[in-house]
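User: Hey, quick favor. My workstation is busy. Could you predict this chain's structure for me?
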Amino acid sequence: MSAHPLTAYGWDEGFAESFAPYAADGLVPGRIVRVDRGRCDLVVADGDTTATVRGDTSLVTTGDPVRIMCTGDWAAVDPEQRYVRALLPRRTAFVRSTSSKRSEGQILAANVDHAVIAVPLTAELDLGRIERFLALAWESGATPLVVLTKADLVTDPTVLGHLVADTEGAAPGVLVVAVSAETGQGVDVLAAVLTGGTAVLLGPSGAGKSTLANALFGAEAQHVQTIRDRDGKGRHTTTTRNLLPLPQGGVLIDTPGLRGVGLWDAQSGVAQVFAEVEALAEECRFQDCGHVAEPGCAVLAAVESGVLPERRLSSYRKLVRENERLAARTDARLRAERRRDWKQKQALGRHMAERKRGPSTM
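Assistant: No problem, here it is.
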């Protein structure tokens, strides 16, 4: 039996099983490759091959920025009217908090296997920012890897080795690859890792994401702009999230540069990034140890002995506090929404009771 035309885009038996009820209604599966102003582009089967169609998403539009359709989603599509009727359950979702103070999440990519974090070597390494990206990546359910881009600009191999080692120290258990899209260094390694799955490319503007994407595609699939001369910062080359097939197999979602990387419900992600701190905390005298000045704190003892870098503990505390504050604000927002819904139901109940009684008589 020949493979399904959408297999190259990640279609498998699991998604087919989730789609089965919609197939019975005459709908067809499609993967969202781009979202734009209430409509989206989807790749669908067209005989033995695939085609890209424009779909109307008004039937699945929601005010929830986490549940809204996103690049990478699988959808049930009306083949005649081109309406997206439903979204299939997500396996993974990369979500960050919005820049507003409303404690809302924003989904960046769905059904992703690999989260590729691009870090440019044109500036000093921000290990705390890398840890923040990693926490979100682990929380999403995807496997993260860190790509140090523009490695050709670091001419001393010893210096480059130290940069890789420093990054590995902030990313335990995560593959770190130094890559140069100009010379091809590391591109083959990255391409091999991404073969056959769905990857999302994340990082700030100027990290060389689009240039790296072009190197992986072997063609200028994404338009590339040069770094601004005055401040070395990048323009937003990619303005939408686009899903494109890789020549070696698999697909890549390129994303716009991210200015803010706020945590969103990332407790387990933070624990994964700082697994060594979490392991040490198990040995503390008190279960609720804050690792500040408590007696018998195994974490502080590890810092004093040099086993645990102080920077790692400081970063851990910062992300834990941020995640707890966000959780508290989110809980408060949910309580407010529940009160509002309750009041609306009460008002509706009173209105229906008055209608049932009919007009009052004098």
